[in-house]
Structure formats: structure tokens, C-alpha cells
Design brief:
The longest helix has 24 residues. A hairpin with a 7-residue loop joins strand 24 and strand 25. The strands form eight sheets. Strands 4-6-2-12-9-10-11 form a seven-stranded mixed sheet, with helices on both faces. Strands 15-14-13-8-33 form a five-stranded mixed sheet, sandwiched between helices. It folds into three domains: about 190 residues, Alpha-Beta Complex (Aldehyde Oxidoreductase, domain 3); about 325 residues, Aldehyde oxidase/xanthine dehydrogenase, molybdopterin binding domain (Aldehyde Oxidoreductase, domain 4, 2-Layer Sandwich), CATH 3.30.365.10; about 140 residues, Aldehyde oxidase/xanthine dehydrogenase, molybdopterin binding domain (Aldehyde Oxidoreductase, domain 4). By secondary structure, the protein is α+β, with helices and mostly antiparallel strands. Helix content is about 25%, strand content about 25%.
Length: about 750
């Protein structure tokens, strides 16, 4: 490959290239695109959890001035009948929800009608006038009741890996000198991004649609709509150049885009559907989880037994399952380990991936158990983890491509001042506040998915790189720009990144921390292709200034290429293109794991790791908890941009604090409905809740994990944070809370 010189390339703390558009309001989101004659749709949601619709009276709604139509299962457009037509790229096994399909009600909040009007205000008012009659069936949303129906699905969702047991964990636990056992609970959470789910669908005539949608995968939505309405894929264009946060809620197409497309096709007009904050609680969410964990150890803290048994909730119509119990079994050395994962059905919508799905729950619960064990054996929590450190993936018996967790422990502890920690609970205080120091380990997958990118160099020396990949706030525009700058030696100002368009080269949905690794590798390949074409073009120049040099012999910098050995003159890209009569150089390449990569994947584990240290202060009289300091030491391979990377970890830490102290979705089990569906009652951390956060990136070169050595950062920041907070609370108060979030009532005990 060509040698690279670029100040704006990989490793540079470049500011977001799209930042100015966002702060000036020029970046348009899904609900902001204008259209002539645009109609507005407002969704009517079911008021029961299970049963069927027996009566629809929309006469009052239709009488409202400006109302164009009221869509229900009785007058809807014809849709596909096969489940597979509605199964998007990340759908779990089962029968996907088909809104307005029939009279059946599967959960409270299910969309049952769409009122379409000339104005949003008219549609909203008319929607309140739609009357529905129901025949109710018995429903259940209680975890303890659902446990009686827990099961292991025959068909597992893509990305789920069952635990691999080793040794005889039950016997080892029974004979262990020191044991702890407990049920660790995590309540349901909703994603709650700043931008609510919305779709603006332009009707282009002849069944063609241009769809502006809040999604993490435009090609996924394109295929979904084409399947649902029996359209040609080329007749559906989906765009999402800007996404106001998603955290996994946009991985699957939500019902807003389906209903907006249906209305546009039926009425042959452009339609916009925007969900309310309350309606954001009527689709995907992180599932509630109960994890029974038992640990056995020698008196010196060496683990002898791991038993972990987790159940998460799912809907009755799809089998959503997360990898919950594997993480501790992978991370710690222990000869005897047994894990089991189950799902239990309830009458809610299907849960979905939320930032670090499975790990943000399972690793949190396991790390809380490890903290409990540290006190049982009388060993410092950090020392216990170092004592049981495993250089290999202990569950799969495979080497890691790299694992710098030990270094993360050391650097994080030093920065935090962990050696000054008093070991006894309730032994550190200042005034009326008890001070607690806790820590935890984080772990996530480092993934790489098939992705294509196109690089186009023009005669004015500017470069465009393009892929259908999404930027959900993670900095994908900037990553693509920096990789291109690194590969061709161009300044960032000469590069434009295009994304979020289903017509662009193939990409996976953005999520799981694979975005930068995948699109970055594709951009690099495409730019290498441009470099090769440039070198070939230079041979047509008078005198062959590069003297037949091979690509590996060349340096690319400042829009020129020259020999590495110093012979000859630097050749401007524009001069080479002119000599070869090229008005542009365009190369499209696909990056994907090859056969050797797949073999390596089976032989080696690919993961990110973190060490999180946390300080809390707890008002002894009121039980109010403040997280005053967090140090997050991250081992995540090569860091493309330390500035935007730090932002990713900060965001993950804040969400982890939210999971530990604030966030929980409450169901009214009589109604089967999530009730705290607003920011007044669903609490997310505010600025006043967040204090000092220090991020450390541990040097971890890894040429094997992905083509760029990138491991991804979107998830690892949240994993471990909630556990570190909960563990710090125990150290401060001496009260062990095994159910998150840790609220005041759980601390005020006799």
C-alpha cells in the first residue's frame, strides 16, 4: 500500500466536519423536509394490551376541516402477507408487527389508525376524536408471572451466542470456601434520543417514493418498504443524512415510516408522520432482566465457580434475545462456569438493541456480583479482578487479537487515585455526605461488517467519499474524511463525505460499534484504488517523473505524489489526471471479512475492554446520590480521532450513570402500558447530574482485529459504568442494592 502523510488523517483530533451545519441549523432531519401539498399524519394507538378491535367510528374525525383520510385495517392499502416481507435486516425470529393488518391487538400502544390531514393541528385534533371499541383478552406484563413461561427459542436471532459451559460449576460452588449468591435485576429502559422518530415521504408518481426517515440503516428501510408494499427496491429511495441520536432505536424500521409510506401510496401525495415523545414508548426498548448469579472462590479470591442464569422479556410475537450471561464467563479465569439464557413472553412490543445490548445489562450485573465477592473474601475490588485476570477468552478458550485490560486497570487506577481508597464501607465522608469509591470492568465485541464505499477524485483536486452508512451522532462523516485524508494525503478541507442515502454503495446498519471499522475499511480500499489509478496516470506524463515506481514506493501528500527515495519531482494529482485525459477518477470497493478472516474469527476473540472508576457522594440523611468523578480507561485498538472518540465515551458514561440512578420504564400492569412516557417522569441525567469525567485511551495496537485496527467505541463507554456507580454506592453506604436503578427508597433502609 502507498505510504501516507496527512495532518488531518488518522490520529488527528479533527473537529466534526458536519458540526457547522448542525449548530447553524442547516442540517435537516427527517421531519424538516418541505414538500408541495404535504399532508400530515397522526397515529392513533390502541388503549388495551391484548384483544381485538370490534368497532371503529371515525365519523367525527372525518368531519374535521382539512382531514383527508383515516386509515385503519378496514380501508388500508394492500400489503404483503408473508412474515418474511416484514422481517428487516435485524429482526428477531417470529412474526413481525404489521400495523393496520387486522383487528388483533398485541400490545398497548399498537398503532391502530392514522389520521391524515392538510395540517398537523387538524390531524392531531381529529385523531383524538376516533372512537374504538375493543374485546379484551387477559394480558400479562409482570416479570414474575412471565417467568413461569420462560423458554429457550428454537431459532436464535442473528448475533446471539449461547454460553459455553466448562467444568462442574455446581459442585465447585458447593465446596467453595467463600460464596456469594443473589438475584440482580435491571428494569426496562427506553432509548429516548433527542430526535423523535419521524418520516417525510415524498410521493414521486408511478409508485415511487423518496423517504426521509430517522433510521440507522437507509437500505434496511428501503428493503422493508419494498417488501411490505410489493415495490421495486429502485422505486424507494431512503435518506437519513442527519440523525438526532438513536442508540439502537433506529436499527429496525419503526411504524412511523410504514404508515407514512402507506398513506403516500394510497393518497398519492406526500405525507409526514412524526411520533410524539409519548409514542416513543410504544415501540422498541431495552428489556427488563433478572440474572441469578452465584460465585465461589478460594479464600485468596481465586474464582472456583461461576453460575449465571438470566431471563429477559420479549413480546409474544417475536423472540428477541440478548447475549447476557457470556461476558463474565469470557472475561475471568475460572475452571468451572455455567451460564443459561432464557426469554419470557409478555404483552408489550418487542424489545430491541439499546446501546451495548446484553453487555450493558449482563456485564453490569456480573460486575456487581464481583464487587460483592471482593468484600466476602476481604480483597480490594481491583485486586480481585487482577487476581482472576484471563489472557484468553475463558469461555471459548481462544486468544484475543489483543487485550490491554491490565493496562487499563493500572492507568485508570493511577489517574483516579485508587490506592488512597479506604477499604471499609461508610469509612469515607465529608460533612453529611458519605463518599464511596467503586470500580468495574467493561467488555464489548469488536466487529467488522461487509461495507462498500466509492471514492471520486476530481480535476480540481477535491475528493468525495460515499457510502450508504449512517451517522447517528458517532462522527461517521469525520471518520470517512480522516481515513480518506490519511490514505491520499489530502487535507480535510478538500474532502467531502456523503452518506445516509440508500442509492449509495452498500453498507450495514450503523450500530454495534462496527460503523467506523466497516466504512473506514471500505473508504481506505476505495482511496487505495484512486491512488493506483493516479500512479498509472502519471506514467503518461512527459518524462515519466515517477520513473515507473510501484505504488508502495510512493508518498502521497498535499495533493501530490512523489517517490519515497527522493528521486524526481512531486507530481500534482491534477497534472497526472490531465496527462491521462481524465476528468475524474472514480473507484468503488467493498471491504468484507474474507475466508482467512473468518477462520481467524473462529480462532481468536475480538473485543474492547474498559476499566471504570467512580466516586459517589451520598447524603446520609436524604439518600441523594451524586456521581462526582468518573475515570474511564478504554482499550479499544486504534483511535481514529481522539476528540470525537472522547465524546463517544463521555456519552456512554452519561448513559451508564442514567442506567445506574435514573432510567426505568414503569408499566401499569392493569393496562399493560408504559406510564412514565415523558421527560418529567422518565429521568435521564441532566447537566447538573454530571461532574468530572476523565477518559483515558490505552495504547493497544491490533493489526488483526479489523483492517484499520479499529475496535469501535459506541458501546464500550456505557458497559461497566452503571456497575461502578452501584459498587461505589455500596462502599459509601454499606447498603447492597442489586436492582438498578438505585433510587432513594432502596437506600433508606433500617
Amino acid at each position: 500500500m502507498a505510504a501516507i502523510i496527512a495532518h488531518d488523517g488518522i490520529g488527528a483530533p479533527l473537529s466534526r466536519v458536519e458540526g457547522l451545519l448542525k449548530v447553524t441549523g442547516k442540517a435537516r432531519y427527517a421531519a424538516e423536509y418541505p414538500a408541495t401539498g404535504l399532508l400530515h399524519g397522526v397515529v392513533v394507538n390502541a388503549a388495551i394490551a391484548r384483544g381485538r378491535i370490534t368497532r371503529i367510528d371515525d365519523s367525527a374525525a372525518r368531519a374535521v376541516a382539512g382531514v383527508v383520510d383515516v386509515l385503519t385495517h378496514e380501508n388500508r392499502l394492500e400489503i404483503a402477507s408473508a412474515d418474511k416481507k416484514f422481517q428487516d435486516d435485524v429482526a428477531p425470529p417470529g412474526s413481525p408487527l404489521r400495523p393496520l393488518c387486522d383487528a388483533q391487538i398485541h400490545y398497548n400502544g399498537q398503532p391502530v389508525a392514522l389520521v391524515v390531514a392538510e395540517t398537523f393541528e387538524a390531524a392531531r385534533y381529529a385523531a383524538s376524536l376516533v372512537e374504538l371499541g375493543y374485546e379484551q383478552d387477559a394480558h400479562n406484563t409482570r416479570f414474575e408471572v412471565a417467568l413461569a413461561e420462560k423458554f429457550v427459542p428454537r431459532k436464535k436471532r442473528s448475533g446471539y451466542y449461547p454460553p459455553k459451559n466448562r467444568g462442574d460449576a455446581r459442585s465447585a460452588f458447593e465446596t467453595a470456601p467463600v460464596t456469594i449468591a443473589g438475584d440482580y435485576h435491571k428494569g426496562a429502559e427506553h432509548h429516548n434520543p433527542m430526535e423523535m422518530h419521524a418520516s417525510t415521504v415524498f410521493f414521486e408518481g408511478d409508485g415511487r417514493l423518496t423517504v426521509h426517515d430517522k433510521t440507522q440503516g437507509p437500505q434496511n428501510v428501503q428493503a422493508y418498504l419494498a417488501g411490505a408494499f410489493d415495490l421495486k427496491a429502485d422505486d424507494v429511495r431512503v435518506l437519513n443524512p442527519f440523525v438526532g441520536g438513536a442508540f439502537g432505536s433506529g436499527l429496525r424500521p419503526q411504524y412511523n415510516v410504514y404508515l407514512a409510506a402507506m398513506a403516500a401510496l394510497k393518497l398519492k401525495r406526500s405525507v409526514r408522520v412524526v411520533l410524539t415523545r409519548q409514542q416513543m414508548f410504544t415501540h422498541t426498548h431495552r428489556p427488563e432482566c433478572l440474572n441469578s448469579i452465584s460465585l465461589g472462590a478460594e479464600r485468596d479470591g481465586a474464582l472456583t465457580a461461576i453460575l449465571t442464569d438470566a431471563t429477559t422479556l420479549t413480546s409474544r410475537f417475536e423472540n428477541y434475545m440478548e447475549t447476557v450471561v457470556n461476558w463474565g464467563m469470557m472475561n475471568y479465569a475460572c475452571e468451572n462456569a455455567e451460564g443459561a439464557s432464557f426469554i419470557a413472553p409478555v404483552d408489550t412490543y418487542t424489545p430491541g438493541d439499546m446501546r451495548a445490548p446484553g453487555a450493558a445489562t449482563g456485564m453490569t450485573q456480573f460486575e456487581m456480583a464481583m464487587d460483592e465477592l471482593s468484600y466476602a473474601v476481604g480483597i480490594d475490588p481491583l485486586d480481585l479482578r487482577v487476581k482472576n485476570y484471563s489472557n484468553i477468552d475463558a469461555m471459548n478458550g481462544t486468544e484475543f487479537t489483543s487485550k490491554a485490560l491490565r493496562e487499563a486497570y493500572a492507568q485508570g487506577a493511577q489517574a483516579f487515585g485508587w490506592d488512597r481508597r479506604s477499604p471499609q464501607p461508610r469509612s469515607m465522608r465529608e460533612g453529611k455526605e458519605l463518599i464511596g469509591w467503586g470500580m468495574a470492568t467493561g467488555m464489548w465485541d469488536a466487529m467488522f461488517s461487509k461495507c462498500a464505499a466509492r471514492a471520486t477524485l476530481k480535476t480540481d483536486g477535491t475528493l468525495e467519499v460515499a457510502s450508504a452508512m449512517s451517522d447517528i451522532g458517532t462522527g461517521t462523516y469525520t471518520v470517512m474524511t480522516q481515513v480518506a485524508a490519511d490514505t491520499l494525503g489530502l487535507p480535510a478541507s478538500a474532502i467531502t463525505a456523503k452518506l445516509g442515502d440508500s442509492t449509495l454503495p452498500l453498507s450495514p446498519v450503523e450500530g454495534g460499534s462496527w460503523g467506523a471499522a466497516s466504512v473506514g475499511a471500505a473508504v481506505q480500499l476505495a482511496c487505495h484504488g484512486v491512488a493506483a489509478r493516479l500512479a498509472k496516470a502519471a506514467a503518461k506524463m512527459d518524462g515519466d517523473p515517477l520513473e515507473g515506481a510501484k505504488l508502495d514506493d510512493l508518498l502521497f501528500e498535499n495533493g501530490t505524489m512523489r517517490r519515497r527515495d527522493g528521486k524526481g519531482e512531486a507530481v500534482p494529482f491534477t497534472a497526472a489526471m490531465e496527462a491521462a485525459a481524465l476528468d475524474r477518477i472514480e473507484v468503488e470497493k467493498t471491504a468484507q471479512p474474507g475466508p482467512l478472516d473468518m477462520v481467524s474469527l473462529m480462532r481468536k476473540s475480538r473485543n474492547t475492554h474498559s476499566a471504570v472508576f467512580c466516586e459517589v457522594r451520598v447524603d446520609e440523611e436524604l439518600g441523594v446520590v451524586r456521581v462526582t468523578r468518573v475515570v474511564s480507561a478504554i482499550a479499544a485498538g486504534r483511535i481514529i480521532n481522539p476528540k470525537t472518540a472522547r465524546s463517544q465515551i463521555l456519552g456512554g458514561v452519561v448513559m451508564g450513570i442514567g442506567a445506574a440512578l435514573h432510567e426505568e420504564s414503569f408499566l401499569d400492569h392493569r393496562l399493560g402500558r408504559f406510564m412514565n412516557h415523558n421527560y418529567a417522569e422518565y429521568h435521564v441525567p441532566a447537566h447538573a447530574d454530571i461532574h468530572d469525567i476523565e477518559v483515558i485511551f490505552v495504547h493497544e495496537p491490533d493489526p488483526e482485529v479489523t483492517p484499520l485496527g479499529v475496535k469501535g467505541l459506541g458501546e464500550i463507554g456505557i458497559v461497566g459504568t452503571a456497575a461502578a456507580v452501584a459498587n461505589a454506592i455500596y462502599h459509601a453506604t454499606g447498603v447492597r442494592v442489586r436492582s438498578l436503578p438505585v433510587t432513594i427508597d432502596k437506600l433508606l433502609v433500617d
